[in-house]
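Duplicate of earlier report; Delta(14)-sterol reductase LBR input re-posted below.
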Amino acid sequence: MPSRKFADGEVVMGRWPGSVLYYEVQVTSYDDVAHLYTVKYKDGTELALKESDIRSQSSFKHRKSQSSSSSPSRRSSSRSRSRSRSPGRPARGRRRSASQSREHKDDKKKTIIQETSLALPVLVLFKPSENNTKRYNGEPETTEKNDTSCIILEQKLKPDLEVKRVLEQYSLRSRKDDKKKEEFFSEKKTFVAVKPIEKVSMKTKELEFGGRIGTFMMMFLLPATVLYLLLLCKQGDPSLLNFPPLPALESLWEWKAFGIFVLWFLLQAVFYMLPIGKVVEGLPLSNGRRLQYRINGFYAFILTAAAVGVLLYLEFELHYLYDHFMQFAVSAAAFSLALSIYLYVRSLKAPEEDLAPGGNSGYFIYDFFIGHELNPRIGSFDLKYFCELRPGLIGWVVINLAMLLAEMKIHNLSVPSLSMILVNSFQLLYVVDALWNEEAVLTTMDITHDGFGFMLAFGDLVWVPFVYSLQAFYLVGHPTTITWPIAVAITVLNCVGYYIFRSANSQKNNFRRNPADPKLANLKFIPTATGKGLLVTGWWGFVRHPNYLGDIIMALAWSLPCGFNHILPYFYVIYFICLLVHREARDEHHCKQKYGLAWERYCQRVPYRIFPYIY
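Output:
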């Protein structure tokens, strides 16, 4: 069993995962099983690092001293060569002496050492720090007298704001192919061979949803909940305590319904692959790569609407969905299970860097449920991104339309009821907004953090279309009459929720993609050690999760047209509150680990999480 190299409490230089930046950290603990050190950065961020990603401070100081000691000899050699020159060229000799004098002064100010490795060429800048101030990714911190400022520039990557700041601080300029600068770099740098940087294998330590046992139970609980809700809506008395009788198993399956669902999935896949719409890059992955995504969800919605219009023109009975709603739900559940099995099997061959941070625990049940691979793709076809908005979300609108037509047929109405119109209109607005702002989904945790497994597959293909349409399904069998003043009040409530939801998400998305946008100059933020900022003005200075607040207000507006005779239509509101509280707690924990003291400062600045003055 290998012995540990660094002791608890020792101050060392730790590499930031996914980069070549080294910062001063303190060792807090060591995991004998995983052979990982838990280190704490100066801003409070705690991470687990391998021993190969940690170096002693003496090694950095040693390289610095080597560079300093080599400088006099080089200068001495230059002076001897200068004295041996021909007397016929005194002016040039004087110019070289002046140049050497300037270089001698610069050498006292800073020592530059370039490290070369097989993994990535980097430039390490050391600057003696005597009562100076240094910055960790934009956040100033005062250093001790004996500290060493260490900033590493990745020459292979694009310069970002941090690189520009370092270049300005050290008065560095881009290299050109002229002779003088080649001589400068050849004389002022010392090449030191170092070991290639090894990849960090990050296993998921903190398990959600009750760990292995909880996720195993949820794989049965989620389909059972969908079945229970749909059976309850079919009853004359849809009280939650009035448990519906279980139907025969053979009545729950119909091959025609399964075939229609598969055709629907393939149709949306064809729309997704059409070369229309712009192509954008997602947020950087842990290895620095950016995946490309085609933004054409709204076009897919338009094409779907045209296809449904053709079916209605050909007198296709769309209310067939209502008559076989249970069979369609079971077909979608079976399809999502098959897709989840495929996703897990293919993830076993995926490289370590492509695995999801939250679904790499090593436990089969947990990783199968959460999702083992972060961005599973077949060529350029991104399975998770496709399922996030297309089959389920657009299918939700088609199901609502089928319920509207079924209500008119069953109750012999010439026009739909006002309640059904409100439910369809509100939810149509929500779906169209999501597709119109499709690019914003690339910054959500579903895309950047969560893997694609049973949880998202079932949620996207079953839960969204068949549970989110619960109000419309309920109104078919339990019609509710509302007056116009009440309808206007409910509409105002939905508009308020939508405004909060959209403006908050737009602020977050725009700030994440381009913090330097002049349009965002009025927004204030707290800098963090990761280089990102935490907004403390606008909606994000009002509560920590204003988008969740808008979601809950809209969910209430969707349920109010169903009246107050039964609580079943409000299941979505209750579920949504529980879901968002869980997400909020997960976000709080994730952000505290990621941002450290900066997140504590943000929480002090913005004390309320979702509901102002309440929670």
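The chain is about 50% helix and 15% strand.

Merging into the original ticket.
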